[in-house]
From TrEMBL:
This is PiggyBac transposable element-derived protein domain-containing protein. It holds the Pfam family DDE_Tnp_1_7. The lineage of its organism: Eukaryota, Fungi, Dikarya, Ascomycota, Pezizomycotina. Residues 113-323 form the PiggyBac transposable element-derived protein domain. Residues 150-173 are annotated as: Disordered. It comes from the Eukaryota. InterPro entries: PGBD. Signal peptide: none annotated.
């Protein structure tokens, strides 16, 4: 993001679906409070010193989140009608127009001529009665869900794109702009009949793509290790909101946070990492309500949980040793809970009683943070 304060004040989310805000400048955003997590150094984890002060037993004040179930409105009677809500005829008409326009302006013609299929060619599968496999693959290869006139073809390789300075850093990357219109339509359509309950989760997701693109990211040890990375807010597997991830720059469309003055140490201690701000941004894109967000240790820290509580959002998640958790619990983790019986829970509230800090002995010792559950709460 530009260092000019006026630019920072003007950056905002245009609406609750389509996000168009500059990605953070990691050289400014990443300080001693975060550490690179991924190979492109655009995903960072929290790095906070262990807490020293703690409250007395029983001083934790839980943030009350009323339990709400998901509400699903009236759905179409036929599955095809539900499908057409997401892919309506007018959208398909535009796709067909753009696909034909791209073919007409291409330098080279199709690799093979199309022929009308015969419904007797393959009577086994219903779909192939109307379209052959080869024709489907040719259409899929040439399908355009964006206006090709807005995106002139370039022959530069991904390595050349990375080395070439970007003339417009305020623009969403091309590959995401090409799908953003349909992305917004999918989210808006889901909102028309799906109202989420109180329990949510935020995580990173991968859209498989092994072709050439400057925006592909590699995340080792994932089921889909190579592709486009997307930051997702979901409930029970249904994705509600998402943010694009820009290779080498981080999440795109974060809600700006005020930059602390150099002498304001307290404000610096409250600043979140760009990866943590994925959580605070995604929950602001939902209808206003009280939610309970579950996170993993890529996001969770004492600092983030305080910020979420100020937004009237409860949070629970696993934590790393450098997530600001109490030093007594960090010492237990250093020894991996030697001498602690399996299943035993140790709990220490923060001094202000806003966050409950746990260790739980499983096969290894697990660190937890929560602003919702007491040590006596039955979760499972």
């Amino acid at each position: 993001m530009d260092s000019d304060d006026s630019d920072a004040s003007e950056a905002s989310i245009r609406d609750c679906i389509t996000v168009a805000v500059l990605p953070e400048d990691l050289a400014v955003a990443c300080t001693d409070s975060c550490r690179p997590e991924r190979c492109d150094e655009a995903t960072v984890r929290p790095h906070e010193p262990p807490g020293v002060d703690h409250g007395t037993p029983g001083s934790f004040t839980p943030f009350e989140v009323p339990e709400r179930e998901t509400q699903i409105g009236a759905l179409p009677e036929e599955p095809i009608d539900l499908f057409l809500r997401y892919v309506p005829y007018d959208v398909v008409d535009r796709w067909a127009e753009w696909t034909n326009a791209a073919g007409a302006t291409a330098q080279r013609g199709p690799t093979r001529r199309w022929a009308r299929s015969n419904d007797q060619e393959d009577p086994i599968y219903l779909f192939t009665r109307f379209m052959s496999r080869n024709r489907f693959q040719l259409l899929l290869r040439r399908l355009r869900i964006f206006d090709p006139a807005d995106y002139p073809d370039t022959t530069t390789t991904p390595s050349q794109q990375r080395s070439r300075p970007q003339a417009r850093k305020d623009r969403m990357p091309k590959v995401y702009r090409q799908v953003n219109e349909w992305s917004a339509h999918i989210q808006a359509t889901g909102d028309s009949f799906y109202t989420p309950g109180s329990g949510l989760t935020v995580d990173e997701a991968m859209v498989r793509f092994t072709g050439r693109s400057v925006e592909t990211t590699t995340v080792p040890n994932k089921p889909t290790p190579v592709g486009f990375k997307v930051w997702v807010l979901a409930r029970k597997g249904y994705c509600l909101r998402w943010l694009w991830h820009v290779h080498g720059q981080g999440p795109y469309g974060l809600v700006p946070q005020a930059r602390p003055a150099r002498v304001d140490e307290e404000a610096k201690k409250a600043a979140l990492t760009p990866t943590q701000r994925v959580v605070t941004t995604l929950v602001t894109l939902l209808p206003v309500a009280e939610y309970h967000v579950f996170l993993d240790n890529l996001f969770a820290s004492v600092r983030l949980f305080r910020a979420l509580r100020r937004q009237n959002i409860g949070a629970t998640g696993t934590c790393r040793k450098d997530g600001g958790i109490n030093d007594i619990l960090v010492a237990e983790k250093e020894d991996e809970g030697k001498g602690i019986p399996w299943g035993q829970v140790h709990c220490i509230p923060t001094k202000d009683g806003q966050i409950n800090q746990f260790t739980w002995k499983d096969n290894a010792l697990v660190l937890f943070l929560t602003t919702v559950f007491r040590e006596t709460s039955e979760v499972l």
